[in-house]
Amino acid sequence: MKYAVQWVRSLVFNVSMYAAMPVLAIVYLPWAMFSANGAVAACHAYCRYVIWTAGWMINLRCEVRGTPPVDEVLVAAKHQSFLDILMIYNAIPRGKFIMKAILLYAPILGQYAYRIGCIPVNRGKRGAAISKMLADVEKGDKMPGQLVIYSQGTRLAPGVKKPYKIGSAVLYEQLGQTCHPVATNAGVFWPRRGIYRKPGVAVVEFLDPIAAGLTKEAFIAQLEAEVEAASDRLLVEAGFTPKDT
């Protein structure tokens, strides 16, 4: 019975979440058309709305730990759910994501992603994708913000292990910026697929920054070790037992 009730609440929440997207997009459109600040404000408003409604609609509270960066840095994050995207973006002042190029064609999402400075890449050809990513990042250097990359290249279910891709290390070396690793357990409560949302406390944790200057190999090894250990700890905290896969 409790599962059925939560499933219905999750359905209502999902409808509300997707309905709010075009509404806020239209409300902020005049400002967003003439200024990237308007697009950033719209995206922050949407994140706040979803996080707020999750708290009372489905009893899913969102908690940000650590110190989110406010200056020009690289953010290398664990990706388990659409929720961790919202939580990370809401926690930083001007995030811009390395994203799949195909998402630019998504209604509303694609247009606003472009306006806030997201960097589209094609993942099919890794070498070409990295080169284009670096070129696009260089072109966007004048746009302030925190560049967010998902180091494993895709969204993974809780407990699933996958090697960290070289793209994060190449960006780290090329940009010469501090990197802020981010761990999460959001996938325990908000799965990759399906309607059901589990009640509880979803956490996004900003870990101690990694200073610029490491070799690519040393950086990626440290990043993977720290993010995976912290994410596993958060999974256990959420009642999920990580297993090697």
Task: Give the CA-CA distance, first to last residue.
Answer: 33 Å
In the CATH classification, which architecture applies? 3-Layer(aba) Sandwich
Question: Which CATH first-tier class would you pick?
Answer: Alpha Beta
- The coarse overall form would be globular
Unreliable parts: none
Please count the helical segments: 8
- Remind me, CATH topology? Glycerol-3-phosphate (1)-acyltransferase
Q: How many distinct domains?
A: 1
Please give the number of β-strands.
7
Helix content: 40-55%
The average pLDDT is 90
Assembly type:
single chain
Quick take:
The protein has helices spanning 2-34, 36-57, 82-91, 109-115, 126-139, 166-175, 186-189, 216-237; strands at 60-65, 74-77, 95-100, 119-121, 146-150, 179-184, 200-206. The protein contains 8 helices and 7 strands.
Write the layout of secondary structure elements.
Blueprint: H1 2-34, H2 36-57, E1 60-65, E2 74-77, H3 82-91, E3 95-100, H4 109-115, E4 119-121, H5 126-139, E5 146-150, H6 166-175, E6 179-184, H7 186-189, E7 200-206, H8 216-237
Parallel strand pairs: 1-7, 2-5, 2-6, 3-4, 3-5
Antiparallel strand pairs: 6-7
